[in-house]
Amino acid sequence: MNLFDLSGQTAVITGGNSGIGLSMARGLVKAGADVAIWARNEDKNAAAVEDLNALGGGQAVAFPCDVAEEETIASAMASTLDRMGKVDICFANAGIGQGMALPEMTAEAWDRVMAVNARGPALTYRYVTEHMVERGVGGKLIATSSGQSIMGVNQSSNYAASKAAVNGLTRAAAYELARYGITANALLFGFYETNLTAQADPRFAEWMTKRIPLRRFGDHEGLEGLAVFFASPHSDYITGQCLPVDGGLCIS
């Protein structure tokens, strides 16, 4: 018996064409779920869909979406329902780094990061949960947060604040939507090699590795099973949680 069969389920993953989002999408497709990627870069979208459909599990499609622009979220939701008929699971994963130290903070830098990292998940959930509530069969909301939301960090106040907002959104959504059978959780990721971390000073990665109790970066293959668990019925009694996935970094 396959304990984690997601056949017949449909998942949305914002920012799912690379990095953590694509790794989670691979796990979902392997488990039989159909996946709709919402992301900005259409070339990367096409490459991700080709990658996912070669796995031989569920079907993958992609729709252009910038979560900082509400109209593109609405359009992606409409396209997903037209193509796939429903949404059972939503991974609000899209995000940007662009951290900045407080003495250098500008309104533009603050607003840009908050628009993508905080408002983006909220508006994504707005359209997805409207559909879930109307269907009346429950659903799963999983947000990509960061360990920076609960730890002090240098030169990244706007990013840390945006991810702390995601944690608050998660708890509020879990409480508000429980009556509809919809759960909401956030995954507070530590150091994974992605396009965002590739922009950091290499000395930061070396220092970070020494600080992580498990002494290594997160592995992307491990994200596949994590995504499947939170998308599956086995996580039905977990809601409102902000779970660090960081090799013990937050306790170091």
Task: Describe the secondary structure blueprint for this structure.
Blueprint: E1 10-14, H1 19-30, E2 34-39, H2 42-53, E3 60-64, H3 70-84, E4 89-92, H4 107-135, E5 139-146, H5 157-177, E6 182-189, H6 202-211, H7 220-231, E7 242-245
Parallel strand pairs: 1-2, 1-4, 2-3, 4-5, 5-6, 6-7
Commentary on this structure:
With 252 residues, the protein is α/β, with parallel strands linked by helices. It has a single domain, classed as Rossmann fold (3-Layer(aba) Sandwich). Helices cover 44% and strands 16% of the residues. Strands 3-2-1-4-5-6-7 form a 7-stranded parallel beta sheet, sandwiched between helices. α3 runs parallel beside α4 and α4 runs parallel beside α5. The mean pLDDT is 94.
Largest sheet: 7 strands, parallel
According to CATH, the homologous superfamily is: NAD(P)-binding Rossmann-like Domain
Number of structurally distinct domains: 1
Biggest sheet strand line-up: 3-2-1-4-5-6-7
- CATH architecture call: 3-Layer(aba) Sandwich
Residues in β-strands, percent: 15-25%
Mean pLDDT: 94
Number of strands: 7
Using the coordinates above, name the CATH class.
Alpha Beta
CATH topology: Rossmann fold
What characteristic shape results from the CA principal axes?
globular
Overall helicity: 40-55%
Task: Compute the CA-based radius of gyration.
Answer: 17 Å
Class by SSE composition: alpha/beta
The total of helices stands at: 7
Poorly predicted regions are none
